[in-house]
Amino acid sequence: MKISVLCSAFIFLFVCTADALPAEKGQKQKPSLSKEEVQKLRDIAVIISGEIIRRSITSVTVTDFKDIKGNPSKMGKIAVAEFRKQMEDLGKTNFTVVDSGGGAFVTGIFLPFKGGDKWRLDIKVLSPDNRLITSYSGFFRKTKGAKK
């Protein structure tokens, strides 16, 4: 009887772990930004918010960062969410970040290079009449230990 109970317990554990393993292996980690990439976005936000403050703009709309085809990408969405957060933190007393109808529009293109370890970010700040207020271009590189 002890042997049958042990065998049943062993089979039960084997079946439970066998079912759990493929699900764990199949799960993909969500793309995220490294600390260095977050810091670089903050540095860019500082430059752009300084220009917005200098021009006395009171509200800004941050739109999605698109890919080369004009579509939002996963990493572009992650980057724009972090950038928007940084802009909100920096503009607390001087300007507000709004969903639409701002005194300036921040738009960008987030382009991955082949291999996925480097991206180019081009940001433009436009007035409501589509005039260029300021722009920024930079590169992001994946660092060791950063998740893809």
Largest beta sheet: strand ordering: 2-1-3-4-5
The count of β-strands is: 5
Report Rg.
Answer: 23 Å
Shape type: globular
Can you describe what's shown?
The chain is of the alpha/beta class and 148 residues long. It has a single domain (35-141), classed as THUMP fold. The chain contains 3 helices and 5 strands. Strands 2-1-3-4-5 form a 5-stranded mixed beta sheet, covered by helices on one side. Strand 3 and strand 4 form a beta hairpin. Helix 2 crosses helix 3 (74-90). The protein is globular and about 40 Å long. 21% of the residues are buried. The model is unreliable at 5-25 (pLDDT under 50).
What's a quick, concise take on this entry?
This protein is an alpha/beta fold and 148 residues long.
Draw up the topology in text.
Layout: H1 2-26, H2 35-54, E1 59-66, H3 74-90, E2 96-98, E3 104-112, E4 118-126, E5 132-141
Parallel strand pairs: 1-2, 1-3
Antiparallel strand pairs: 3-4, 4-5
Helix pairs in contact: 2-3
Main attributes of the structure:
about 150 residues; alpha/beta; THUMP fold; 3 helices; about 40% helix; about 25% strand; globular
